[in-house]
Design a protein that fits this description.
Blueprint lengths: L7 H21 L1 H19 L4 H31 L5 H36 L1
Length: 125
């Protein structure tokens, strides 16, 4: 544990670092744009169909989990690239596991979205 005093300025700087990380993700990771489009589509659909509070909670959690998985996966990939530029089988497995985590999160979000939106779409057809 650090013995440093609490500092509002330091806390604000930490938010700045986090925003910088999100900016880097959007600038350098093309898949993040797919997540952004999907997130905006889910939010737009939620507003259009006037989903319930519980459905909003599910949507927010799904969106957040997909973004977290993408951020963690990007960290894993960058760390592995920093460790070695060689195409090592051990590093491939690590990167593949990170990518699988994003896939699982995205599929989970897709299924949750289908559960929420398919009945609403069918109701207006």
């Amino acid at each position: 544990m650090s013995n440093q005093q609490f500092s509002i300025a330091a806390r604000l700087r930490s938010f700045g670092y986090a925003i910088s990380g999100l900016r880097a993700l959007l600038q350098k990771e093309h898949n993040s744009w797919l997540h952004l489009v999907a997130s905006l589509a889910a939010i737009g659909a939620g507003m259009f169909f006037q989903v319930s509070r519980t459905e909003w909670i599910a949507l927010v959690f799904c969106i957040g989990i997909v973004w977290m998985a993408e951020l963690f996966n990007t960290c894993i990939e960058r760390t592995m690239d920093f460790i070695s530029k060689e195409r090592l089988p051990q590093i491939k497995v690590i990167k593949d596991l990170g990518a699988a985590a994003v896939l699982v999160a995205a599929i989970t979000a897709l299924v949750a979205g289908a559960i929420i939106f398919i009945p609403k779409i069918l109701a207006i057809l």
